[in-house]
Amino acid sequence: MQTPTQKDRRKLNADASTIIPLTTGIGRLMAIGKHNGATHERIGSVNNVTIADGRARLEGPAHSAVVDLAQVNSITADFSAAMGEKAMPRLDFLNSSGEPVFSIVALDGRDGFDRAFSAVPAEPLTDGVEPARPERRELAKDDPGFLVLDTIRQSGEPVELRLERPGFTQTWEGIVERVSDGMGFANVMTESFHLHLRGGSVARWNWDNDASRLVALNAEGEPIGLSIRGSASALSALGADGTTL
Q: Could you tell me if 57 and 18 lie in one domain?
């Protein structure tokens, strides 16, 4: 499959178990999971992909993700994005409803992408309807998502930030050095990881059974897919219901 010179979208005529291992050949990439207001991104090269028991595992110093292959119904490639003169091809792994299970953006341009996917058959897609973007709102000073992330930052202790959605789980482990407020989101950003948590997505946090894992809940009391695991000292500044003391 050669990347076309004009902007367009294409359907890849291959299954996820064929496509995902090819990502080891495209250089630096961003693996993106989104669910209920949380966007979880890992950034770097994928060193290895293991296919076993109906799942694909993306592995590397900057990657730790598991894909349920049965949840991926189709795969599209979008060539419209660019940063300056550099093309940034995007792969969307879609479920049966046409929603992304997860996405991959190639960060090193088109050449590596073309080499990796040259043998993959594809067909043009007509322009789809852009999904409606949620209304942007200011991040409230008492936003539970921001407050807990900032409390974790103040602890200086390493934590695990995990996103789980149907068909996709991705984790990051490290020290949260900075939490910023921008564009209505609480943002954690490192060289190999970005978390963007939309303001208002988290109404409260709840302890998991083992009391070392906080689960983000929405206003209806439902998990949004984001959780935080850490040591007792990392979470000691949080109340039993997951709110800051």
A: yes
